[in-house]
Amino acid sequence: MVGTGGTTVLYQDSASDLRSQNQELRQQNAELRENLDDTRNDLESTQTRVDELEDQLETRSEDVDQVATNLNQTEEQLNATESQLAETRQSLRDSEDRVEELEGTVDDLQDERDTLQNEVDDLESTIDDLESENEDLEDERAELEDQVSDLQDDIDSLESRISTLEDDIEELENQNQELRDDIETLCSQPENQEKATCEGY
């Protein structure tokens, strides 16, 4: 009986230990399930984050492609700008050479202008002298015109005198002709032919 009782106590202790272990295992199992749920939740969150990161990565890849495209365009624009800059520098050098040439031309034109201005001054002085001389000549011409007017009056008077004298001469010639005709008529008469006055008639 004693042996049986001891066995019973030992069995009860073992059962109690098993129940205790089983309880611990259940508790551990519950904790593991809870941890598993947490892990699954973390996994889902992580997967969601991974999906988001993949989307961001794809977006970033597109952004990188766009940036690369923009970079290529920028490089092309930079090359074009550098080419334009080189052309602009060449144009600037050409413009500077042209400016120097034009400045030389301006200096030459200024010298020519000064020379022409001196010639103009000389011509204006000559014109002043000629105008003064012209005024003197105008005065002299007016004086000569007065003299011509006086001489014209004298000429008119002389012409009138000449006309009168010509009339007198013509009248005298007519009278002389009449006298010669009378002498010729007289000398043609026989009684007068021997007279000395009739010689030549």
TrEMBL record:
Stored PANTHER family: STRUCTURAL MAINTENANCE OF CHROMOSOMES PROTEIN 2 (PTHR43941:SF1)
InterPro entries reported for this sequence: Autophagy-rel_prot_16_dom
Organism: Haloarcula marismortui (strain ATCC 43049 / DSM 3752 / JCM 8966 / VKM B-1809) (Halobacterium marismortui)
Highest taxon, organism lineage: Archaea
Chain spans, region Disordered: 1-22, 81-102, 130-153
Domain Autophagy-related protein: 21-137
Protein's UniProt name: Autophagy-related protein 16 domain-containing protein
Chain intervals with Polar residues compositional bias: 7-22
